[in-house]
Amino acid sequence: MARTAMLAKPPVSDRMRSIRRVLWVILFLNLGVAAAKYLYGAATGSAAMQADGIHSVFDSAGNVIGLIGIALASRPADESHPYGHAKFETYASLAIGILLLLAAFEVGSSAVVKLVSRNYTADVTPFSFVVMIVTLCVNLGVTFYERRRGKELKSEVLAADASHTLSDALVSVGVIVGLVFVALGFPAADPIVALIVTVAILATAYDVFKHALATLSDHARIPEDELKAFVMGIPGVKEAHRIRTRGTEGEVYVDLHVCVDEDMTVGAAHDLSEQVEDAIKLRYPQVIEVLVHIEPDDGHED
């Protein structure tokens, strides 16, 4: 006996709308930060500041990709996509990862050219530090806000973008350190810091790809032992096995086999399956669908 239960909580579209609002706010903040760092870096000849500005531009491009991905992911299930379109959010995360790789190439190649040619042109002024410190504070604020909302909404795009923005903040710290060394008479520190920026971007890309591939490879979203122990605590359940979970962090699908007393009536077994489904969704709010297969507890091994 099997029954599929739909999610008994606010519509997925409300979650997607909230993610979209966050992305719009972050987009405008990232554009402001990128413009400040890149334009001032270009005016003073600082490769590190320009590199940091480029990184912030790619943050903004990632926001745009995220908005497109969320627009696609929010579409309801249809005949050709019976499980919905939630994985488009994951595809958007992968696209952000690709942009990060392109940003790393741009930043790294520019730094190498400066090191090889020994063309150190950075001009450090007190305002250079003002620009970097202000944009660093903005980045930190964006990171904490986006990470908090990402956890609340179980959003892969927001989580990936928050990690990206945090790396941007850490890069800004590195740029500030580089500017200090340039001011002290070590001009080569500027492109060297730009190379450190490249490494930070690559590390961020790796993290983005790792989380996206976990979803696309149907990585288990809830530990099997944990879910089994929970289900076994429901009155009437004799045994639970073949427990599987998959999906995005915000939309998890569960299927499992539950053994009941072999003398239980069909109606009672059906009611128990509903109790199991409702209990799982109450315990794990990210679960949107549960499939329970009822079996008699007659000692057989499935």
Automatic annotation (TrEMBL):
Its main location: membrane. It is a multi-pass membrane protein. Residues 23-216 form the Cation efflux protein transmembrane domain. Residues 225-296 form the Cation efflux protein cytoplasmic domain. Keywords: Membrane, Transmembrane, Transmembrane helix, Transport. SUPFAM superfamilies: Cation efflux protein cytoplasmic domain-like (SSF160240), Cation efflux protein transmembrane domain-like (SSF161111). The keyword Transmembrane helix applies. It is found in: Membrane. InterPro entries: Cation_efflux (IPR002524), Cation_efflux_CTD (IPR027470), Cation_efflux_CTD_sf (IPR036837), Cation_efflux_TM (IPR058533), Cation_efflux_TMD_sf (IPR027469), CDF_Transporter (IPR050291). It comes from the Bacteria. The chain crosses the membrane at residues 21-41, 94-113, 125-145, 166-186, 192-209. Belongs to the cation diffusion facilitator (CDF) transporter (TC 2.A.4) family. This is Cation transporter.
